Amino acid sequence: MIRILSVIALFLLAACGEENRSVALDPIDLDAGVAAYEAGDYVAAVEFLQPFADQGTAEAQYRLGRLYADGKGVTKDYVEARRLIERAAGQGHPLALNALGQMFKYGWWDTEPNDIAAFQWLILAAHLGAPKAVIDSSMLDLPERMTESDKNAATTLANAWLEAFERRQEN
Questions:
Q1: Do the beta carbons of residue 85 and residue 66 sit within 8 Å?
Q2: Whether pLDDT at 13 is above 70
Q3: DSSP 108
Q4: Helices 58-70 and 27-39: crossing angle, nearest 10°?
Q5: Alpha carbons 8 and 163: distance in angstroms, whole number
Q6: Distance CA 95, CA 101 (A)
Q7: What distances in angstroms separate CA 86 from CA 8, 112, 136, one per listed residue?
């Protein structure tokens, strides 16, 4: 009876598509997915990146999210793009944080533009290691069009997020 319940539990876990399943993945496949992405072979990139994204690998989630946003190798799906990029950003992925900043700045992926949210995510992207050139191009005119009060609000939100992120990293 216990064996049958174990088999049923494993089946349900697989059917639910739970993130962070403990299936061993070969890191070479992640590298192959990144290489396919950069080479423009988006169908292969999706094939390699999806299992890593399902297990919670931030790099795979970010890149797969960009593919969904652009409809490359998959059907364009802004909801899935945002979900994946938010998950990668939640792990501190600098380019995913930058993508969220741009999403709010420009109103990408069916999102209402919001300068405070954009500034918050771009501050975090810079703090967690996004390249300076990426941040500079993302910020462009943003600080000039914001009030000091808005900048302070964004900085407060960024600091609160960063404190919570650092606490999660300690545990």
A1: yes
A2: no
A3: -
A4: 30
A5: 40
A6: 10
A7: 32, 16, 21
Q: Position 137: which residue type?
A: S
Q: Which two tokens stand for residue 9?
A: 């539990």
Give every CB contact of residue 42 below 8 A, 6+ residues apart in sequence: 36, 67, 72, 73, 74
Task: Give the predicted TM-score (pTM) of the model.
Answer: 0.82
Give the CA dihedral 149, 155, 159, 165, nearest 10 degrees.
130
Instruction: Quick: pLDDT tens for 27-41.
Output: 778 999 999 999 999
133-136 long-range CB contacts below 8 Å, 24 or more apart?
134/95, 134/98, 135/98
Q: Which of 71, 106, 69, 94 is nearest to 84 (CA)?
A: 69
- Single-letter code of the amino acid located at 156: T
| CA-based nearest residue to 95, from 20, 28, 34 | 34
Alpha-carbon distance of 55 to 119, in angstroms, equals: 29
- Domains detected in the chain: 24-90 (1.25.40), 92-171 (no CATH)
